[in-house]
Hints:
alpha+beta; two-stranded parallel ribbon; 23 helices; 3 domains
Amino acid sequence: MSGYVPTNVTVSRWAMALLVALAWFCPSLRAASALDTYSADLHTMFPDMQRIGETDGSPPAAVIYGAQGTIGYALLTADILPIPAYSGKPINTLVAFDVAGRIRGVRIVAHEEPILVVGISEQDLARYVAQYVGQPIADEIRIGGRAAPGRSVVDGISGATITAMVVNRTIVESVRKVALARGLLVQDGGSRRFEPPAPLWVILWRDRVWEIVVLGVGLGMLLLILLFQDWLARHPTFLIRVRTLYLLFTLLFIGAYGYAQLSVVNVLTFVSSLLGGFRWESFLIEPMMFMLWSFVAVTIVLWGRGVYCGWLCPFGALQELLYRLGQRLGIKGRELPTVVHERLLALKYLLLLGLFALSLQSLATAERFAEVEPFKTVFALRFMREWPFVVYALVLLAIGLFIRKAFCRYLCPLGAALTFPSRFRIFDWLRRRKECGRPCQTCARECEVQAIRPTGEIVETECHYCLDCQVTYWDDRRCPPLVDRRKKAELKARLARDKPV
Length: 501
């Protein structure tokens, strides 16, 4: 019998062609879109949506189909412009826009931002992203400022300014890239290519020039204070005024205005980035934080961690100023028994180890437990959050009225983290005498953070670099060895004066 007998290859080709034809005429047989997970959200954004196309193209996006064909596009910003945010990870956002060139909806679908994990409610996020609905994709969308032709304005998220700016940039640039590639936008001169915009960190540094200058001047002043600490210690009244003014600068400018309170979360994020791919952009995105960390890195090597804890920590400055106020109001300071004090010192190290262990499993989980630091409550959210967080912060401040910088000494995981690089300190700037501790106990008794052992040594990992002991060191009315020398000199001068000619 003659005739054509199809081979296996021919059968396969016919089967593939049949499947393609069926998939074309029967959408239910097509491959699922990567955005099918968000079909409910997209239905809300496009009530007349019938189906979601496959996510494809460059940059990748999915076509939204209606009864008459294409009605819009949907995308995930992490697929197009994964800008690292405060956490070092991108904020993934679902964005949809229609063929008329207007944004139809925005939803944040994944993030690890500390301020968003705990502190900013889902309602706050929903209100923020709702502002993008109806915005023209051809406009420049800014956070704050004034609207103008070709420029739209949205309000930021209180206490999460940098995060809001990252979200805004990823939305605007991702949408523009997709719209240009699909022919919905045409760049000037007829080109559909981007003149690429400056990196977000560059824009942020340009926009915050005056803050950078003020902080730079402040850090320069602190550097001079440290370099000339011996001279200042010999002029205690002037030193007290300088230190008080600097603590106010730290509290009001760095903390209350700049929200630049360093946190153990920064340390965990840094370690995570080293393990998962380091990117400078993650740390350059916040100018004041970057400058502070750079300064801390230098001063830790030269002076130890006490410079940050004693001069640059806003929460530490708040505790210090409140303690002084309490002293003026007649509240008597307390010191814990040495045995209790030494046991409590271990708490902050245990907290640090626990947070580090959690971060290895989930950085977001570690960020939640990092609320042991009240910094976010006090500075980023200004006590405007759930009452347990507010009560916790107030209790810590109240304890600090009686025990000088109690939180810093016993609970602060950031302070614990900074002690490890402090062990590589090069110089020893704090002066001691051979009589310190043997037998003199003046500095040990006067140190209100109990950072001087009875044997006379300064415990560098617990010192807050207040320079009180250095004032005593140079004071011939308080330092016993100098008192003895002064009295002998006075006696010798008196004898010489009274000696008969």
